C-alpha cells in the first residue's frame, strides 16, 4: 500500500505542507515547487508527475477532476475545503488522518471534502 502524498495548490497556506512534513508525510506546496501562476491543469499535471493528491480551496479543481475521470484519464485525487473554513492546524490534522486511512490507490480519481 503506497502512502498518500499531498500537493497543496498555490491558494493553500504553505504552512499546511510544512505541518504535514513535520508529521513525516510527503507534502509539496505549489509555492515551494515554483508553480505560482500555473494554470489549474498544469497543477494537475505536476501532481500527477509526483503522484500526489491535490489539496485545494479552488472549486475549479473539482470540475477538472470530474472531467479527467469522465475522459478516462487518471489523477491522484483531490481533497477540497472552502477557504477559511478550517485553520491551518486543523487542515494538517485532518489531512494527516487521510494519509493514515487511505492509500494512493484508493484516492486515485476520487474527490474528498475535508
Any key phrases for this structure?
114 residues; alpha/beta; 5-stranded parallel sheet; globular
Structure description:
The chain is built from five helices and five strands, in the order E-H-E-H-E-H-E-H-H-E. It starts with 5 loop residues before the first strand and ends with a strand. Helix 1 (14-22) links the parallel strand 1 (6-8) and strand 2 (27-29). By secondary structure, it is an alpha/beta fold. Helix 1 (14-22) packs across helix 4. The protein has a five-stranded parallel sheet, sandwiched between helices. The mean pLDDT is 95.
Tell how many strands the DSSP assignment holds: 5
- N-to-C SSE string, H for helix and E for strand: EHEHEHEHHE
Number of discrete helical segments: 5
- Overall average pLDDT: 95
Shape: globular
Low-confidence stretches: none
Can you describe this structure in just a few lines?
The chain has 114 residues and is α/β, with parallel strands linked by helices. It has helices at 14-22, 40-49, 59-70, 88-101, 104-107; strands at residues 6-8, 27-29, 53-56, 78-80, 111-113.
List the helices and strands and how they pair.
Elements: E1 6-8, H1 14-22, E2 27-29, H2 40-49, E3 53-56, H3 59-70, E4 78-80, H4 88-101, H5 104-107, E5 111-113
Parallel strand pairs: 1-2, 1-3, 3-4, 4-5
